[in-house]
Write a structure and sequence with these properties.
single chain, alpha+beta, L-fuculose-1-phosphate Aldolase
Length: 217
């Protein structure tokens, strides 16, 4: 079977979505950039299957030029559009994790960016975490909104939906999704105490420069 190692890796991290409570049951989806039959594309979790039942042959390969769901055996996740568009627009993206994580989803329901109440906001790539405007799941409109919110970012919230993060590999993307969930949890606690102090633009600029080496420390 083609890309067997990559397919098994997607299954491994799909199971982690459940075991870490990052995304319960069938919610969320994972993809990995790849090549099949000389076509550039990505492997993505299928639509509607519980992660605990996934087998390598269930993982769907989609070409970057595909506009329709052509695989009749297994349908790709309904969110394949924004996965494809992230890979097209973000050459540094090699893996994507989309999760309906509890705190990120709760914060996303307000449809607002998360301000720099904590310096770890910088892990998403900027001085705030943007929130993509709401659109029906699986639509081209949602994909456009996500790409806009990911401008100069590695992760964003999706209004009334959840979050999405990308990285150089699945470990990197999954860890970032966990970081975003943790930040959202902290933010909800902070808001219970009132409006948190917001770090200045100047401070976040310094933090962003230091964050480039964060994972090397």
């Amino acid at each position: 079977m083609k890309n067997l190692r990559e397919r098994n890796q997607i299954i491994e991290y799909s199971l982690k979505l459940n075991s870490t409570n990052l995304s319960p049951l069938r919610s969320g989806n994972i993809s990995l950039r790849g090549i099949e039959d000389d076509a550039e594309g990505y492997l993505i979790t299928p639509s509607g299957k519980k992660y605990e039942t996934l087998k390598p042959e269930d993982i769907v390969f989609m070409g970057l030029n595909e506009e329709e769901e052509k695989n009749l055996t297994n349908k790709p996740s309904s969110e394949w559009r924004f996965h494809r568009d992230i890979y097209v627009n973000k050459k540094e993206a090699h893996a994507i994790v989309h999760a309906h994580s509890p705190h990120a989803t709760a914060v996303s329901s307000h449809g607002k960016p998360i301000p720099p109440f904590h310096y770890m906001i910088a892990l998403a790539g900027g001085d705030n975490i943007k929130c993509a405007e709401y659109a029906t799941f699986g639509t081209e409109e949602l994909s456009k909104n996500v790409i806009k919110a990911l401008e100069n970012r590695y992760a964003c919230l999706m209004s009334n939906h959840g979050q999405v993060a990308f990285g150089k590999n699945l470990e990197d993307a999954f860890e970032l999704a966990q970081e975003i969930e943790n930040i959202c949890h902290q933010y909800t606690i902070a808001l219970k105490l009132g409006q948190p102090k917001i770090l200045s633009f100047e401070e976040m600029k310094k933090v962003l420069n230091k964050a480039k080496n964060y994972k090397k420390g």
